[in-house]
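Recall from the previous lesson that a structure prediction takes nothing but the amino acid sequence as input. Here we apply that procedure to Aminotransferase class I/II-fold pyridoxal phosphate-dependent enzyme from Pseudoduganella rivuli. The sequence below is the only information supplied.
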Amino acid sequence: MNLYESLAADIEDQVARGVLVEGDRLPSIRQASVHRALAISTVLRAYSLLESRGVIESRPQSGFFVRRKARAAPRKKETAPLVLSSEVDVSRLVLSTLRTIRTQGAAPLGSPYPDPAPFPWQRISQYAGAIARRQHNWSVMDDLPPGNPELIRQIARRHMENGLAVDPAEIVVTAGATEAINLCLQAVAKPGDTVAIESPTFYAMLHAIERMGMRALEVPTDPKTGIRIDALRTLLGQHRIAACMVMPNFQNPLGFMMPDAHKRELVELLARQDIPVIENAVYDELYYGDSHPTSLKNWDSKGLVLHCSSFSKSLAPSYRIGWALPGRYAAQVEKLKFLNTLATPSLPQLAIAEYLQHAGHDRLLRQVRKGYAQRARMMAAAVLRFFPPGTRVSEPQGGYVLWVELPDGADAMALYAKALERKITVGPGHMFSARGGYTHCIRLNYSYPWSAGTEQALRMLGRLVGEMLTPAARSKTR
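The prediction returns the following tokens.
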């Protein structure tokens, strides 16, 4: 291949990959000559070749641009075949679902994220812009763990207002709750250790365990009261468990709020054996009742509760600011934060801190909670209306997800694949188990405004489930 042909091929490949898109300006002939160490005549010849192929076009006095192509009639997108195996790679399945939501514009019933529309991202961005204009001399020293002092003060203040007095010196700011969970798990367990988890459980917990080469021990979980303490007590006598990971409030995917007596019993059981418990509290602000729920931390007298939370579900999903209250492991978590990611950027921390100080966040949260509670009832009613008899749904006490148990004979992965063909996403139950369980369950997101499209998507899902059932299965559900 000649030099000009090689340059033309590189540019054409960048266009094909989407690095260069329609209307993008190419480097000038002189710039390309310098950057690629080619003669000007070689670059000119390459551009002329691309122009003859219709890839780029020249504009007088302006240069060369990626050509805008005539729009062909849209074609139906082909859906890649899925491997409907009981051995499901949870992380790949989650990533596949998220990519589908982003790239195909599918109904986001399978999304793990809240609808961003109600949250004040513009106002927080304005605070960030004002802070950036005031402060010009940013240094990595400003970002070092444990985090920005003003944000830490605001976090401690919110905990106090919600009924939990905490020591600000214990707080470590992280890049979202996911990092907080990973750091806390790394602080209390090592590769090869066994970690007790709820079943079903939020897949971020499974990702953390998988990433660190640990083993998950699934504990039966009641859909209304949480992890079964009698079952956990039995397993503690049979296995050497390094830590326990739970989501006591508005658990994803079941939506329950663990009763206070249950929380206290769990903390005391683990404390007797000096076993740390990592508490995922990302949905705590999204309660439907009259008051903020208690935390496992309320009953922690030995520093064994490592409380993890973030603003991603209740304030600023795109800012990825979270924190940990790691108890006796605070110094270790702070050190791991420094070793793993060095720091959390100051600007988003300061912007959120300023918003919390001045903007009346609680008023916004009351509106969000009211909307979620209403949609939870609407979603549950629609599922029971449109899905075959024998379908059962959870009773969320907070958050924005509904757990649906399908009738016998229905397969969640088959439903996932068929729904994708119709641009509808669901969260198949496989994602919430390390052993490939819950093959007949799905999780649905109801944070987005209710619409005719939502109802139509649920009606279609119900029809697809009905088509899976054999005549014998259909008669069994009646």
